[in-house]
Design goal:
about 400 residues, Immunoglobulin-like, Methylamine Dehydrogenase, Chain H, five-stranded mixed sheet, 1 helix
């Protein structure tokens, strides 16, 4: 009984202690300032607001690590944080004691390389599940490399397949990789990646630059007419040319993209330093219906997401990304080569200038928020994003974490 009494007495003391600690030590003190974004690592810039629960209080702050007081900078509106810094704030009000100081630290996120495959470099890449599919061009025999990326920190090649001449483009759909080689479309069975093999091929007129696959059909550009060739791949062992449709003889294809039931093409127009962006409805796969076309800056790569359409633009006086419907251009330093979109970000490979991450949240004012330089003077040529990683090929295959 005595032990039970002692236990309850100790419990009562602890509860009284906790209640006492939770009570304000000074009821005449201004409440601490509150930051709209907690401290942490972010793609910068970010915009931070400061508020105070105490009515009619005034906030003073510093960004240089010094302790704020009544002589510090007066808070009058949101603060743009463009580089790593420590933000300190204090709240003041006549007739009351100054608040305690609130402190947050914001750190700029630089996307780190978490994995590298030295024999996985190339010029084109696609991602499917736990594998990356990379083409490396080298005359007279090129290669398709299949890389296991299930552990991002330790990617490794599980299969090399020889491809005659050059690989101009690749696409992945379900258990197959479609490789656009010299005047032929190769279909490679990847149901067992470590023993992948060429299952079928279809001779096509060329030269060819791009391939996209939707359902049982592959859409391939041909510069000969120019035209888009439609290859029936429903039987991967025996693909065949099922249809085609021509575009203006003045058009020269630069890229293709697919989204839902739309096929998009980017074509250079004659000798002009401009391109035409064209949309076709492919609800009927063998008889695409023309939707519209829009003039665009000269470029060579299309990236399409749910609501965003961008091309990688190139000119004598500009290199960057161009919003097709927003008609806005954003310059990118370096040597931009390819881009992909994911969520509200564009990821652009820039050769020896590495990978650039661009925030497109406000389409009219894109912002470069991150850069990943490649080691050993490595070059970044193509990129795809899956989950929390960007997969970049060039000199090697680089796996880059893109999540702060």
């Amino acid at each position: 009984m005595r032990h039970l009494f002692t236990y309850f007495l100790l419990l009562l003391i602890v509860m009284l202690f906790l209640v006492t600690c939770s009570l304000p030590t000074n009821t005449n003190q201004v409440a601490k300032p509150v930051f709209s974004i907690p401290g942490g690592t972010y793609y910068l810039p970010i915009t931070v607001s400061i508020s105070c629960p105490t009515d009619s209080s005034e906030i003073r702050y510093t960004i240089d690590g010094t302790t704020p007081d009544e002589n510090s900078r007066r808070y009058s509106g949101p603060i743009s944080v463009t580089s790593s810094l420590t933000l300190k704030a204090i709240a003041l009000k006549n007739g009351m004691d100054n608040s305690r100081i609130s402190i947050v630290e914001y750190i700029a996120f630089s996307p780190p390389i978490v994995g590298r495959c030295s024999d996985g470099g190339g010029s084109n890449i696609e991602i499917s599940g736990n594998y990356a599919f990379v083409t490396r061009n080298q005359y007279p025999i090129s290669e398709l490399k299949i890389v296991n990326i299930s552990n991002p920190s330790h990617p490794y090649v599980v299969r090399n397949i020889e491809i005659p001449y050059y690989c101009n483009d690749i696409a992945v759909a379900e258990d197959y990789v479609y490789v656009l080689a010299a005047n032929s479309l190769l279909i490679i069975d990847i149901s067992h990646p470590s023993s992948a093999y060429i299952k079928g091929s279809c001779a096509i007129s060329g030269p060819n630059t791009d391939v996209e696959v939707s359902g049982h059909y592959a859409y391939v550009t041909s510069q000969e007419e120019p035209a888009i060739l439609i290859v029936d791949v429903g039987n991967p062992t025996s693909p065949f040319l099922a249809s085609s449709f021509s575009v203006s003889p003045d058009y020269f294809f630069r890229d293709l993209a697919l989204k839902d039931n739309r096929l998009y093409g980017l074509c250079r127009v004659g000798g002009a330093n401009m391109c035409m962006f064209i949309s076709w409805n492919i609800s009927n796969p063998l008889v695409p219906q023309f939707d519209y076309q829009i003039w665009a800056l000269y470029g060579w790569d299309i990236a399409v997401s749910d609501l965003q359409f961008y091309i990688l633009a190139e000119g004598d006086y500009y290199d960057g990304i161009y919003s097709i419907f927003g008609h806005t251009f954003f310059p990118i330093p370096g040597n931009p080569l390819n881009l992909t979109l994911s969520n509200n970000y564009a990821y652009v490979t820039c050769g020896y200038s590495g990978l650039k991450v661009i925030d497109l949240t406000v389409p009219s004012t894109p912002v470069i928020v991150g850069t990943c330089d490649l080691p050993d003077n490595g070059s970044a040529v193509d990129v795809r994003v899956a989950g929390n990683y960007a997969y970049v090929v060039g000199t090697d295959l680089y796996i880059i974490s893109i999540t702060p």
